[in-house]
Amino acid sequence: MNQTQEIARLRTAYQSELALGTDRFFGPKRTDCPWCGSSRLRTRLRTVDLLQHKPGTFVIDQCGDCSHSFQNPQLSTQGLDFHYRDFYDGLGGDRAELIFGITGSRRRYFAGARALLPFGTPRRWLDVGTGHGYFPQVARTVHPDTVFDGLDISEGVEEAERHGRIDAAHRGLLTDLAPELEGTYDTVSMFHYLEHSPDPRRELTAARTVLAPGGHLIIEVPDPDCAMSKVLGRWWMGYFQPQHVHLMPFGNLRRELESLGYTVVAVDRREPHIPFDLTGALALAFGHYGPPADDPWRAQPPTPFQRWCRAPLLLSAAPFLLGLCCLERLIAPLVSRTRFSNAYRILARKEAE
Length: 353
What we know:
Layout: H1 3-18, E1 41-48, E2 57-63, E3 69-71, H2 77-84, H3 93-102, H4 105-114, E4 124-128, H5 134-139, E5 147-152, H6 156-162, E6 168-171, H7 174-177, E7 185-191, H8 200-210, E8 211-222, H9 227-232, E9 246-247, H10 250-259, E10 262-268, H11 277-289, H12 304-335, E11 343-350
Parallel strand pairs: 4-5, 4-7, 5-6, 7-8
Antiparallel strand pairs: 1-2, 2-3, 3-9, 8-11, 10-11
Helix pairs in contact: 11-12
């Protein structure tokens, strides 16, 4: 079956699902902050899906007391399944690999792996939200004697094991699998994972369960205090709606880790910076305003004229996007030292009970 036939088959399935309505894709709207309980909320962002262009409107509220930002209402289990489908796997698999290369993920993965070097050689490392296992594949070059396992809800984790990127695959949720993995690992990593979780606090507690005493938890997340989030608005890639459910200010996450019995041993706001803000914003704008792709969740395929326009427009935009991407990488060492740095890393050690 070629791609055109596959899209036609999927369109029938998607349209049947959408005919049931999209209200079930959301939970109830909150009137208080999930982080501190305050009722002082304001709308920070209202947007549509600028990534896949699936139907829906998504709202990010911000707490007036602790500054925690969160999707409200939050996607339900059905909504998560609908919006993740064909993004990292299926139709979107090739695009996900392209983004991995363009955003310099390999460089950041090296930096994340090297962050553990001052604290000894990890024996067993669990990468949570590993996807296709690209981080463990890179980290092996830094820690060749470490056993790397991966955990994810998607089938990509099993593919990662088949390709030898990880030693063992755990498919499911960390919060569900933590009891059977208790005390197994001396390192747990969450690279751009926690912001996807419906309940970050449960994830941090589960990570503590699977860590042995003295083990380390390394986290990288988008920084909602990044100045570019205000400059670009909904075009800021850090919002990544509808997938990013919680955007945690640095201080909130640090205090939460300490309250759970972790000791923060290192922080970094420079290396985790992703030099892709302007390039990503332009790509999102093109996808939103340009001729539509033949996506199966759209009720109708593009017209012949739209198909004819799309290819030359993509080709003409490519050199400009590439040039902007190179410029952002060139100035990244300077940008990462300012409030425009868009991500941060926390390395915390689990203390004995």
